[in-house]
Amino acid sequence: ITSDAFDILPLKLHPFSQSTPTGLDCMGWKRHIPSSVIADGALDKTALTDDVGSEEDLYEDFRSSSHRYGHAGGGGEQLAINELISDGSVVYAEALWDHVTMDDQELGFKAGEVIEVMDATNKEWWWGRILDSEGWFPASFVRLRVNQDEPMEDYPLKVEGGKEDESSSGTRRFGMGQTTKDQMRTNVINEILSTERDYIKHLKDICEGYIKQCRKRADMFTEEQLKTIFGNIEDIYRCQKKFVKALEKKFNKDHPHLSEVGSCFLEYQTEFQIYSEYCNNHPNACMELSRLTKVNKYVYFFEACRLLQKMIDISLDGFLLTPVQKICKYPLQLAELLKYTNPQHRDFKDVEAALNAMKNVARLINERKRRLENIDKIAQWQSSIEDWEGEDVLVRSSELIYSGELTKISHPQAKSQQRMFFLFDHQLVCCKKDLLRRDILYYKSRINMDDMEILDVEDGKDKDFNISVKNAFKLHCRDTEEVHLFCAKKPEQKQRWLKAFENERRQVQLDQETGFSITEVQKKQAMLNASKQHQTGKPKAVTRPYYDFLMRQKHPTLPTTLPQQQVFMLAEPKRKPSNFWQNISRLTPFRK
């Protein structure tokens, strides 16, 4: 479940946008730097009043500056795009993220799809077309193509005698033997290097302009707060500095199209996995920043940090989104580089391998993001269960593997009971349906799956329980020798459960190998959100008809808010949709 997008408002009322500003390569408005941050990091309160007036005056000054998010270049690139469009040129952009919408005035697309930009007069929302569909889409969800014109032919064709047939191929040349495709490869190489250098500058500005100043103000920030806000961005900065040096070594200044940069991505593919920690923490950073900026002194402090560092006119949360955007851009850049790389080029195989490697990195991060989104759903589910006892599900689990109805047979008299079972990683939760209202579940017990082994039971008489069973299996505790007997209604249901138990163990092992975990902050926040929803009388879960109704509500002609990116959803390979709601939707508690 993704959080609602936030409105883009002037500074004082401005909640933190979940959309990525893409114009981080041009300077915005310039202002006199207030002296609220001094050399030793102390907040000079007299400066705030003597130099620029009261806090209220400072706020009004900020408001009058039209502090808003803009697309690339804060207007320059936007103007250039509109000039191209008005001249009759076709401008293409590639989607960085999925834009999922039920509004017929908006243009939906998948990450990696190509959109024809038809109008870019608005900074936040552009009008575009894919095939015969047109509509608004968020400008920050796309990356303009480096090469707007496609070459007529990839490379000159060979004819009899081994000579190139230039007249038939239509291949243009630039300079000494450089083809159109070589020039376009040069364009992509230059973009990769220039955006990497800009990115390093932004990381440096965050580390030196914000983190360094915040650490000097122990009266305003604890180390835990700084860790929540900035995550491991300092580790990312150190990694990217080494990466850009490796790229520059591989750059051929005389003939850029001959540069061999693929090996650099292969060398750093493992180190790029540190982005997973950063992206997982990012929602917590947004929440903490939102909480702090309700207090004026933090708003002014962060703005003073930005101005002192001479950073562009984008607020802190915008800068903190750049790593999320960056890891998403790599596969798109490499895909375009591969497109303009001759198969005989020395860099071809490395670029091809690098593209697959960066897709795998993005896929890993995307899977972790999906798991984190699931914890809100699990918290909501638990809040709907009556008479819950013991620790929260999220203490040990983060994924619903399978659920369904089974007959549980217990000692000593082989008593059978119909129960609903929910298999999470590490535990199996047992619930009972209400006798009168079948849409209510009561918590009964849980089984620790880490101590269990699964035993397939043949149809017939069971020796342990001395009864005849059908479609049965057992959970056997290795330590206590405790045995649980279960029966499914049909053979195929039994097989699904046996497969689910295999998947549960596989998931646990994978989490151990990849180091996946949920922070205590994330667990507490999910349970807090679920309890607040329950206390305010909201439905225990959003039913599909109600969800579809919400999604059908119309925006004004121009959408007023930017949605949250479906981060890391690359066009290829496509991720299988989560089966969480398919599992949950079979349960009556989620139906009114």
Walk me through the structure:
Residues 184-368 form the DH domain. Residues 399-506 form the PH domain. This protein is α+β, with helices and mostly antiparallel strands. Among the domains are: 81-144, SH3 Domains (SH3 type barrels, Roll), CATH 2.30.30.40; 182-373, Dbl homology (DH) domain (Dbl Homology Domain, Chain A, Up-down Bundle); 399-515, Pleckstrin-homology domain (PH domain)/Phosphotyrosine-binding domain (PTB) (PH-domain like). The chain contains 17 helices and 18 strands. It has helices at residues 45-50, 55-64, 76-86, 166-169, 180-215, 223-230, 233-250, 262-268, 274-292, 296-308, 316-320, 322-339, 348-384, 491-514, 520-535, 544-551, 580-584; strands at 91-95, 114-119, 125-130, 133-138, 142-144, 157-158, 164-165, 173-174, 178-179, 400-410, 415-424, 427-433, 441-448, 452-457, 460-462, 467-469, 472-477, 483-487. The chain has a seven-stranded antiparallel beta sheet. Strand 12 (427-433) and strand 13 form a beta hairpin. Helix 6 (223-230) packs across helix 9 and helix 12 runs antiparallel to helix 13 (348-384). The two termini are 20 Å apart.
Distance between the termini: 20 Å
How many helical elements? 17
Biggest sheet, in brief? Answer: 7 strands, antiparallel
How would you state the average pLDDT, rounded? 75
Structural class: alpha+beta
Shape: elongated
Biased composition (Basic and acidic residues): 155-166
Keywords: Cytoplasm, Guanine-nucleotide releasing factor, SH3 domain
Protein name: ARHG4 factor
Pfam family, one: SH3_1
